Amino acid sequence: MNRRPRHARTHSGLFGRLQSPWMPVAALLAALSTPAMAQAPAAEPPPPRSQLDGRLLEQLLDVELAARQGQWRSAFDVLLDAGRRTRDEGLFRRAFEMALAGRSADHALQATRAWRQVKPDAVEAVRLEVHVLLLTQRLEDLGETLRQLLRLTPPAERSALIAGLPRFLSAPEEKSRVLAAAQHALAPFVDAAGTRVAARAALARLSLAADLPDDALTLTRKVLAEDPRALDGLRVALELMNSRPEAEALVMRYLDSRGAALPVRVAYAQQLSEASRLVEAGQQLRRVVAEAPDMASAWFTLGGTLLQIHQPQEAEAALRRYLSLSEKSEATAGEATATAADPELQETPTATPRQRERIEAAQDQARLWLAQALEQRRQPTQAQAELDLIPRERWTLEVVTRRAQLQAGRGELEAALRMVRETPVKEDVSPRHRVLAQVQVLREAKQWQRAYDLLLGLLRETPEDSGVTYELAMTAERLQRLEDMEVLLRRVISLKPDDASAFNALGYSLADRNLRLEEAESLLQRAIKLSPADPYIIDSLGWVNYRLGRLQAARELLEKSIARRPHAEVGAHLGEVLWQQGHHAQALERFRQAQAMEPDNEVLQETLKRLQVRL
């Protein structure tokens, strides 16, 4: 039952975010002059002759002196008045700088608005105002100012600016208000011939961010109906796949077309993987490496995917191919760890020190996976040899734990535990993580009571830790302390009501023991609502249906689970259902497949013994 992976996701914005609400104007102008925001023409007409006279020049010198002495507000007023009289944009710009230095959003907006009154077509003033409104969350004024910026942008550059808006607007938390501002800004462009694809794609992404997936899907359909190869529309469709399955058809229509871009197929495989549809993800990645055999990143991902679906021999081949490609040169290795969301590693022909560090981390991860694949193939000596290739100064806690597990497998358990407790690692590791690593070693050595004692001691120190509580529950189950397990899982649910793994573990335990089946089904229905694609929860639902006598429903669920992520335990369940349906030949085939994946799986062995099946 100890089979509930946890995941974490991170995202970043396209335009990037300023590190603080205010910054020097030069840096702010640089931030505002990214390709998506710098929409001024390449060549601008020369500025008009300055209308500053000698008296005004003296005043401005006094202004600068006052500003240096901290009296920036009076200096600001003089600059603004001079700007209005002379129509000199440099004076407004300097007033804006002073407002920034004084950390006054109100004065910064006053400067840009006075500037725009004098020079209505001053793109720089509008850009600065947009950014200040966004940084200060003044979303009620953002839409109209953005619309003006779009109007001032040359038509040839307008679609690029529109396409960048979703990332530029990613910072504010009030996503519905951001969407409303964007809708107002884009209203003149959403049906215009030159901008409607970009505008609808931007609104689709912002609708998705505002938790309006149906609106996002409607807009995405319009985008792809007009331009089936619009990458911005395809990105939204990919993100919608898990919540709106019909979006997948939009992606597949593109992937089935001639000349489909490989990054889209890789992104599709990633979405499949995140939905635990690992078999399908592997199929897509095989197509990628067949078409681009030198794409190291695809071999890397394929190897990790195949390892998860218990195909260690093919996983080993893929990972060795990755290492071969990544070690050819720093340029190839730079590509090896790059993804469509990580352009930094794609732009430099040779790896920087930071990139080199990331490349090495990816290579170390590949060797860790290789060691696991070799362990699955019962080749511990070769697995140890792979781990030995990771330099000691790059050891992480995961590397140390894997080495310790191999050492424990050789009968050196105490030395293995000491290794996990004491070996220096490159990252900062808390005592909690050291204890959990020891628990991992003890579990693999089937030292359940010692693992239980360690976890219990850790939980006494951190009684609100739902993760430790869950691990203790799973260890209690191994010790047949089933009442303790149930109490602990209910404690996890109270601490973390959205933890699908706890609902699943408790529901499955009841179903497996043929107890309180209606309650078990209710718990599993709650789990599947929290994590609809999890193949382990689908397996649990199949098993409770089997216990309730619904053989056909059980079979369909178990087949769905194993098609997404093959696992020996799921194969044992499906084989038993087929056996009870009288499909003995199919059941035997499922049992054999499960045995090939994991010969010593306890559920499989118990099932074969109970059904008196010999393979």
UniProtKB/TrEMBL annotation:
Question: According to the UniProt record, where is the region Disordered?
Answer: 330-354
Q: Which residues form a coiled coil?
A: none
Q: Which InterPro entries match?
A: TPR-like_helical_dom_sf, TPR_rpt
Pfam families (UniProt xref): TPR_16
Keyword Signal annotated: yes
Q: Which residues form the signal peptide?
A: 1-38
SMART domains reported for this sequence: TPR (SM00028)
The record's TPR repeats, renumbered to this chain, cover 568-601
What PANTHER family does this protein's entry cite? BLL7664 PROTEIN, CELL DIVISION CYCLE 16,23,27
**What name does UniProt use for this protein?**
Tetratricopeptide repeat protein
Write down the species: Ideonella livida
